Amino acid sequence: MSGKGSSAWFERAQRVVPGGVMSPARSFGRVGGGAPVFLERAAGARVWDVDGRSYIDYLGAFGPHILGHGHPRLVAALAEQLERGLLFGTPHRGEVELAERLVAAVPCLEQVRLVSSGTEAVMSMVRLARAATGRSLVLKFDGHYHGHFDGALVGAGSGAAQSGDGGSEGIPGAVLAQTVSIPFNDLSAARQVAEQHRGDLALILVEPVCGNMGVVYPVPGFLAGLRQLADDVGALLAYDEVIVGFRARFGPAYPLVGPAPDLIAFGKALGGGLPIGAYGGRADLMRLVTPLGPMFQAGTYAGNPLSVRAALTVLDILSEPDVYLRLEEGASSLADGLLAIGRHQGWPLSLTRLGSTWTLFFRAEPPHSLAEAAQQDRAAFSRFFQGMLARGILLAPSFYESWFWTLAHGARELEETLEASQLVFSKG
Ligand SMILES: Cc1ncc(COP(=O)(O)O)c(C=O)c1O
Questions:
Q1: Which end of the chain is more exposed for a tag (fewer CB within 10 A), N or C?
Q2: Which of 115, 138, 141, 243 has most ligand 1 atoms within 8 Å of its beta carbon, as the pocket-test mutant?
Q3: For residue 164, what pLDDT is reported?
Q4: Residue nearest to atom 4 of ligand 1 (CA)
């Protein structure tokens, strides 16, 4: 239950904002309804609501926070940038430096374009694949979320899976027909689609480790199989690393699980809380982007100095020694502890973790597909969510989302969270 202040603000919000939220995943509709928590301050690993209550933050704004809130170096860099200028509408040094750093950190990236969100990054990548192949069809996977552009809303995960079948009204049938969504980890279904649409398949689009139906890994050989399929039928392979990029290691996550793609997209953690996206890949493909080539993509805020400065600072901090080790150690201690406590109390739980993000699934075995991820004890998740909230622990309000640990989380947060979970799990 949210406090009085959040309830009052939610009342006001619903009069002027559809559903009272600016993005559907923020609704508490799937965890018992009522007012979502209205936050107004954040520092380190903690956030404060409008009633002054504090929470340990594992929502992490759905992924961008890897440093924690208000990292002093990020704040100082942004303050300096505010003085220097917000937006130029011309190229600037920072964006070149960021592009160079991304190209150096990501093996499959020869050239990159900066955009302002994950949606824009993936949308542009899909258009580029179609421009490069002269084909239309995109093969994607149920429960993978690639943003809210028309062609991505077929079998989509995250908030789209929460509110329905992962689709949306308002998209022309002709557009929907250009995307096929099949179960994740089903290579024979992928082969069937690729062979059936041999001359028309432009792109296989996949989250190499899925973060939008909970954290769900590819089975061994799955991504290599997709790579082979794409090559066999002359399609491209793109990884959407908006949620997993720079999360588990400095750079993309894909080297942990599969071969290189032709194209790749980033967002979230890269900006450390400021809006940013990036997409790119092989130089011969990126040369098709305007003004060099015929594939149009643009943006008033693309490469905006504030987001770029944030990303450069995030990369500086993340490239320091042992940063990922610290994230890994903290996250694994908490995730393993939660699993052990919950199981000890008889809850049917399983866990999947990628670096500092994980999902505690309310089912005995970790899922491999959306169909399996959907089979969770949703009522139990709601009770757990509400119980943790009441004890000052903020989680994402959905059993399809993940926990995010940051550099600001430490031994105190670990201890307090395990203590709270002990109380919540023991209540059943
Ligand atoms: C894998 C993935 N791709 C794309 C997006 C869309 O990013 P944004 O919300 O910044 O538009 C998300 C957001 O959750 C995501 O998780």
A1: C
A2: 243
A3: 66
A4: 146
Say if residue 162's pLDDT is above 70: no
In Å, how far are 23, 220, 362, 403 from 346, measured between CA atoms?
35, 30, 11, 21
As given in the structure block, the two tokens for residue 120 are 């824009």
306 lies in the same domain as 377? no
- Of 58-62, 105-109, 160-164, 271-275, least confident by mean pLDDT is 160-164
141 C-alpha to center of ligand 1: Å?
Answer: 15
The string of pLDDT tens digits covering residues 103-155 is 999 999 999 999 999 999 999 999 999 999 999 999 999 999 999 999 999 88
Tabulate helix, strand, coil % of the chain (nearest 5): 45, 15, 40
Residue 242 pairs in a beta bridge with none
- Which ligand 1 atom minimizes the distance to the CA of 23? 9
Please give the angle made by the CA atoms of 49, 51 and 54, to the nearest 5 degrees.
Answer: 45
Q: What CATH number does residue 353 fall under?
A: 3.90.1150.10
CATH no. for residue 294? Answer: 3.40.640.10
**Cα–Cα dist 166/24, whole Å:** 12
| Domain that residue 36 falls in | 4-70+322-427
Same domain, 60 and 94: no
How many angstroms does the Cα of residue 52 sit away from the middle of ligand 1?
30
From 22, 114, 119, give the residue whose CB has the most ligand 1 atoms within 8 Å, as the site to mutate. Answer: 119
Same domain, 228 and 103: yes
Tell me, what's the pLDDT at 156?
85
Which sequence positions are flagged as catalytic? 145, 240, 268
Enter the DSSP assignment of 86: S
Domains identified in the chain, total number: 2
pTM, two decimals, is 0.97
Cα–Cα dist 236/216, whole Å = 23
- The CB of 241 under 6 Å from ligand 1? The reply is no
For the CA of 147, the closest atom of ligand 1 is 6
Q: Is 157 in the pocket of ligand 1 (CB under 6 A)?
A: no
